Amino acid sequence: MPIEIPKDKWPGKIQSVTIGAAAAEGGTRTKSITIGGQTCMPYLHYEAPMPNRPVIAIEIKSRKPDDWSSLLAEVWGDAMNDPAQWAKKAEEAGADLLVLALTLADSPEDAVKAVKAVLGASGLPLVVWGPGQAEKDNELLVPVAEAAKGEKLVLGICEDKNYRTIVATAMANGHLVQARTPMDVNLSKQLNILISDMGMPHDRIIMDPTTGALGYGIEYGYSVMERLRLAALQGDTMTQQPMMVTPGFEAWKTKESKVGEGVPESWGDWKARAINWETLTAIALVESGADIVVLRHPESVKRVSEAIGELISV
Amino acid sequence: MALSGIQIYKLLPQTNCKECGFPTCLAFSMKLAAKQVELSACPYVSEASKKQLAESSAPPVRLITLKANGAEIKAGNEVCMFRHEKTFYNKPGLFIRVKASDPDLAAKVTKADAYKVNYVGMDFTVDGFAVEADGDLTAAVKAIRAVSKRPLILISTDAAALDSALGLLAGEQTLIYAADSSNYEALADTAKKHKAALVVKGDSLDALADLTPKVQAKGVEDMVLDLGGKNLGEWLTRSTQARRLALKSNFKPLGYPTIFFAAQNGVEKEAVYAAQAISKYAGFVILDTFAPEMIYPLLVLRENIYTDPQKPIQVTPGIYEINSPKPESPVLITTNFSITYFSVANEVEGSGLPAWLVVTDAEGMSVLTAWAAGKFDAERIAKAVKGFDVASKVSKKRIVLPGHVAVLSGELEEELSDWEIRVGPREAVDLPAFMKQALN
Ligand code: B12
Ligand code: SF4
Fold this sequence. Notes:
The structure holds 2 protein chains of 2 kinds.
Chain A: E1 17-19, E2 33-35, E3 55-61, H1 70-76, H2 83-92, E4 97-101, H3 108-121, E5 126-129, H4 134-147, E6 154-158, H5 163-173, E7 176-180, H6 185-197, E8 205-208, H7 218-233, E9 244-245, H8 247-251, H9 255-258, H10 270-287, E10 292-295, H11 298-312
Parallel strand pairs in A: 3-4, 3-10, 4-5, 5-6, 6-7, 7-8, 9-10
Antiparallel strand pairs in A: 1-2
Helix pairs in contact in A: 2-3, 3-4, 4-5, 10-11
Chain B: H1 5-11, H2 25-33, H3 47-57, E1 64-67, E2 72-75, E3 93-99, H4 105-114, E4 117-119, E5 122-124, E6 128-132, H5 137-147, E7 152-155, H6 159-167, E8 175-179, H7 184-194, E9 197-201, H8 205-217, E10 223-226, H9 232-248, E11 258-261, H10 270-279, E12 284-287, H11 292-305, E13 318-322, E14 331-335, H12 338-351, E15 355-360, H13 367-372, H14 378-387, E16 398-401, H15 409-415, E17 420-423, H16 431-438
Parallel strand pairs in B: 3-6, 3-12, 6-7, 7-8, 8-9, 9-10, 10-11, 11-12, 14-15, 14-16, 16-17
Antiparallel strand pairs in B: 1-2, 4-5, 13-15
Bound molecules: cobalamin (B12) and iron/sulfur cluster (SF4).
Cobalamin sits between chains B (312, 332-334, 337, 339-340, 343-344, 364-369, 371-373, 400, 402-404, 424-425, 427-428, 431) and A (182-184, 187, 210, 212, 216-217, 220, 250).
């Protein structure tokens, strides 16, 4: 007897968003990437097709970071000293797009130079993050946005206190924005409203609900993402942006990933544990609806990419 | 699925005799639907109605308990698709697969059995062993029972071998893997005889739904489903469909917990497969690899997915002594969120340096969350320092704030004017070095 499978039929649809512009669209990327467009919860192909697969970004920095785990320094090697080299290596490692994080030490000229170098070295679509201090973000992201006009970059990270300048420059120069809020459905919604109110079209906003790492808050992030996705499918237009999350950043902050010595024996081999920490954080987020996961270690990229392949190919 | 008051009313005698203590049968049925009274208060319900009511109140996913002399693990009894709707209740058991033919069997089991890892004050272990009968199953079970008291899953379709092995496990609740349409009769008899639970396996949900009532008719109630599925995507679909059918359609033939073999497509995918299974409804997860660097993150993931996000795990506010502090030892300030407390306490403890750790009541929030929510401010910290009478324990009135809340130091100087306020590092990992260098 064939069973009747209960299906959810949702009125809402996730916004499709395209990142990166090829020559025909006024940029220099070798390809663009489209995310979003879903009309059901993640990977339930029997309810509705999944129009776009989730993608993986690799995070690189304009300068060699001094606070990253030595395991990351080991795998990226000298490329970390040169954003162009690093970008190439990240593309080889299987990234679908790149995140270039600028630092407090960068001047506006440095920032533009780094962005140009990365755009020159790799044809992948690019996300550019400011260093994370409102004033400095504005100081660096505005010239970057102008210098890369038409590339359809994603500019981040917009938070409630600094979104205005970033959104304005993104609008003026044909870019997108990453809107981050701290793990709360209403805050995500509110920031999307504020950004839309400035006139930014919905197909240029990606939301970042913040997730926490495995063992350090992911239980909140996981559910906030599921709730955002459910609200979006129920038809709440201000939660329909695709989601971009940063498991690499979150996981490599934890002691489990950072520290190899003087930790309990029951934590096991350091390198394998650190990669598992990042991979499993990312997998949980992929299951809960992430459209872009930003990772740091090539091995995690490989494993998460394989998993996504299996999830979309049913 | 629970019945509504009206549906229950239709099953009652509808005579309004009032013996239950309610004016009408309808009033009584409303109370029953709200689970505020027992059905037994009505002396006149028919046997048929009783049966129907009992069935409707049975949990949509049957509770299965595996038990040995030392430990037990439960699966099933779940009530929602998404954890925020209520919470997930029974953490999927993590079982390590071992082979009966393995000459190192006892040593492997001993090692995995002893595994223990602490996460925010809780000790986690593996839950049991799945024994593959590629050799003498009875001898293997005997060998395992000499070194471990954790529940077992027996992987064999040889009823005679199972019968003999289960004979050694009297009084336990074991799981047999697995019955399919070709062998279920013999395996169901064995399961019934030994009161074991039985995995039922099928190529599709249709095939499974066909088989479970047949196994039930043979007298086995405790079943676990192997949903099959060739990869992550297919398994997610089936797992979601089975859970939905059970919860939303009250479809009994699939109202059982599931079992998932994480290494089915290779050990290099094992951690990822297990992670999906933990997040998406598995009841038992079988691992081929015993590797702490994989087990630890999986146990943490399981804990995260199965905690109720409405209730952060907390520690009691107070003054905690670490490494037998003396009056001149430093005073560190933190919040009462478990993860925060243990990050700090473990770091300081591990360094061997003595300290007083003042845990303020921040309503179970992390340092920055509590700060942003106004639950960890100068006033609260001052209140804790005064309330726990820290001054009476120390000779040097100096407190160390978490680096993330350096901004509080000015205000705190006003609140605690006779104390020296120091700002520590941002991360607890850097505390020991800070204590050695900066606090003399
Ligand atoms: C999980 C989380 C939540 C959870 C709460 C979890 C909980 N029980 O606390 C939820 C979802 C409920 C939440 C809510 C909010 N959150 Co919140 N949240 C986080 C998140 C992701 C992780 C926090 C965490 O668990 N960290 C792990 C613990 C162990 O860290 P910790 O307590 O800081 O301890 C470390 C150090 O401080 C240090 N340390 C601790 N004690 C001591 C003591 C001494 C002496 C020293 C030296 C060091 C030290 O050691 C520890 C390990 O290194 C962070 C972002 C992030 N990734 O960090 C945001 C974050 C803390 N949240 C933030 C905000 C704004 C909020 C909200 C106000 C937003 C909202 N939704 O309304 C609310 C406030 C709560 C409320 N109103 O109810 C902001 C704070 C911004 C700021 N800088 O002010 C953050 C930083 C996110 C962000 N980037 O915007 N949050
Ligand atoms: S005792 Fe039974 S029959 Fe009598 S009123 Fe109550 S519910 Fe109705």
